[in-house]
UniProtKB/TrEMBL annotation, chains A, B:
UniProt function note: Confers DNA tethering and processivity to DNA polymerases and other proteins. Acts as a clamp, forming a ring around DNA (a reaction catalyzed by the clamp-loading complex) which diffuses in an ATP-independent manner freely and bidirectionally along dsDNA. Initially characterized for its ability to contact the catalytic subunit of DNA polymerase III (Pol III), a complex, multichain enzyme responsible for most of the replicative synthesis in bacteria; Pol III exhibits 3'-5' exonuclease proofreading activity.
Protein name (record): Beta sliding clamp
Pfam family, one: DNA_pol3_beta_3
Family in the record: Belongs to the beta sliding clamp family.
Xref: SMART domains: POL3Bc
GO molecular function, one term: DNA-directed DNA polymerase activity
Organism in which the protein naturally occurs: Candidatus Kurthia intestinigallinarum
Ranges for domain DNA polymerase III beta sliding clamp central: 137-251
Amino acid sequence: MKFDIQRDHLLNGVNDVLKAVSSKTTIPILTGIKLDATKDGLALTGSDADITIQAFIPAEKDGEELIHVTEPGSIVLQARMFNEIVRKLPTNDVEIEVADSYETRIRSGKSDFHLIGLDASEYPMTPDVTNDSQFTLAADLLKQIIRETVFAVSASESRPVLTGVNWQVKDKDLVCVATDSHRLARRKVALDNLPTNMTGVAIPGKSLNELSKVLPDDQTSVDIYLNAQQVVFKTNDVVFYSRLLEGNYPDTSRLIPEEYQTTIKLNGKELLQAIDRASLLARGDRNNVVRLSIVDNQTIEISSNSPEVGKVEEQIPVEVFEGDDLRISFSAKFMMDALKAIDGQEVVIQFTGAMRPFILRSVHDDAILQLILPVRTY
Amino acid sequence: MKFDIQRDHLLNGVNDVLKAVSSKTTIPILTGIKLDATKDGLALTGSDADITIQAFIPAEKDGEELIHVTEPGSIVLQARMFNEIVRKLPTNDVEIEVADSYETRIRSGKSDFHLIGLDASEYPMTPDVTNDSQFTLAADLLKQIIRETVFAVSASESRPVLTGVNWQVKDKDLVCVATDSHRLARRKVALDNLPTNMTGVAIPGKSLNELSKVLPDDQTSVDIYLNAQQVVFKTNDVVFYSRLLEGNYPDTSRLIPEEYQTTIKLNGKELLQAIDRASLLARGDRNNVVRLSIVDNQTIEISSNSPEVGKVEEQIPVEVFEGDDLRISFSAKFMMDALKAIDGQEVVIQFTGAMRPFILRSVHDDAILQLILPVRTY
C-alpha cells in the first residue's frame, strides 16, 4: 500500500471513525483503524463491535485530487496514536506506505514515522445490507428526531431493550419512542418512502448519540437500512453501522392518558428557566423534586423546599388555563429534558390529577409528545 | 443587611472568590462565601484556609450606582449554591436581605429565594498586612513570571518546600525559582521599588496558579505584601491572600553549569513541534524520553523509539552550532514545558555532556533560564 493524501481530509476521516473506537475493547485489533486504499480512494473503518463507522475519502472531489494511490492495499494502525500523529504532522502533504511485515511509514515535511501495524485481513468484515428494508431521511431531521427522544432512554441495564429508542412504522408515520418507565418521549414523522415490511426495532441510545456527532447539520440524504439484527445509516461520506437491541419493546401507547382534567398553555422557555432555578434548592434532595401549583386562572407557581438549605418560589403567567385546580410534584430534570426537547415553543401541558402521568406538547406541532410520571411527596 | 445590586457585578465578584472555596474543606463555614455590606460597597470573601480571596464591589463606579445599601450587615451563604442562584436569576436587578436567624431572601423578577445562612462573625478574620515588606508589579508581568516558573514546582509532597516557587531579592532583581530536582525554571526581574529587608519565601504553586486566574491581563498595579507567614496580592478589585511554605528553600545557584561544551541556537517553535511529535511514540515508555543528536553543524535530529509501537525521526536546521558532537536523551515533557515558557523565540541551548544538566535561554532576553537534567538511556 502506498498513497499521498492531504492531511486535512485524512484527519476529518480519522476523527469520524475514531468515535466508534473504544479504549476499553477486549479485541486487540479493534484498538486500530483499518485503512483500505483503492484507486477510488481511501476507506477508513473504526469499530467497538457494537458500532462500526466507515469514512470514505474519494480520490478526486470537485476536480481536486485528494488522494493519489500508487499501490492499493490495506493496513490496521493504532487508532489513537495514528490520530495524534496525523493531527501533529508538520505539513498538509502526507505520504503513507506499508513495507513488509506491516511496518507503515508516514512522512510529512521532515517528519518520518515508522509504525508497527496489524494485518487488515484479521479486521472484522462489515455486514451486507443489500436485502434490508430501506428509507431515506435528511440528516438535520434525523438529528432532530434523535435529540427529541434519546435523552429518555433508560440508563439502567435491568431491561436492556429500554436503553434503546424504539422505531416503528404506523400507517404512514415513522414513530420513535424512548422511555425509562418514569417518563416517555415520542416523535412522529410522516414519510412517503417508508417500507411496509419494516418491523419495530430498538436502536441503542448510545449508537444514536454517536451517530448525531458524525452527521452534518444540513439536508444531506441519509439512507437507512434495517434488518432484524442491525441498522445502517449511509451518506456519501460516512457509513454508520449499529447492532440492534434484543427483546420485545413494550407497547407504550396505553401509557398515554386519553382524557385530561387540567390544561395549561404557557411559554416553555419561561417555565424551563423557573424550574432550573427551583431545582437548585432541590438538588440531592428527594430526587430533585419541584412543585407546580395553580395559583389562579392566569398564574402558576413553581416552588421547591429543602429544610436544611432554604426554599424558592416563582410565579409564571399562563396564557390558557382550563379545568381543575392542581398541585403536582415531579422531577425537575425530567421536566427540563422534556421542555428542551420541545424547544422553547409555546407549550401545552395536560394533567389527569396529581398522581397520574401528564403530557407536554408544542402548541405549533403535534409531532412531539413528552410524558412524565409525577412524584408522590406526602 | 439589605441591599440592591446589579447581578452582573455580583456574579463577577462571586466567581473570583469562589476560586478559593474548596468542596473538600473540613471547616463547615469555609463552604460559604462571606458578604459584608457597608455604605462603601459589598465585600465578598472565599477561603480554603490556605488561600483567601476577597472581592470588592464599590457602591459607585464611574458615576454609576452598582449597589444601593439600605442596611449594612454581614452573612455567610453556601458558596456553590449562591453562585448558581446568582448566575440563574431572571433579571439584572437583585435584592438581598437578611432577616432574623440568618435567613436570607434573594429576589429578582418573580423569583424569590430564601436561603439559610451562617453567622458571619464565625468566619475567619483576614490578617493585617500594614507592617509587611511591600512592592508593586503590573498584573501582566506578574502573570508572565508565574507562567514561566510555576510549571517546574514539584508535584510530590516529599519535600513540601519544593511545591512552591522561591521568590527572593538579589541586588536589584526579584529572582523567582522553581525546581522539582529534575528541572529548574528561573526568572529574574529588575525592579526599582524592591524592599531591601525582604527574605526569601516559597509561595505555593497552587496559590500562584489560582492568582493567575483572578488577575486581569493588563498593566493593573498589584501591590504585594510579604511577611514570614504569608503573601498578599492586592488590586483595586481583589485581595488575594496565600500562606507561605515552611522550610528553607535549597540554594539552586550551584546547579547551573558555568561552562559549556556544546552550544546550539535554533527556532524554539520548530523544536517544540518536533519534540511534541517524537513524544507520541515515547508515551508511557521510559518516562516519555526523546533523543537529540547533532547530525552536522547545520542540523540536529530529534528521535524516539518504542520497540512495540514504532519509531520517529525528524531533522531540524540549527542557526549556530559550536563545540563538541553530542547525543543526549531527556524527558519530552520537561523540554516542551521549558520551550513553552521561553515562548517560541529563538532559543540557545547549552550542554556540558550527555549526562550533565543543560540550559535553555531566549536569544533576545537573558531573564529566563530553564535547566533540564538528561535521562540515562543505556
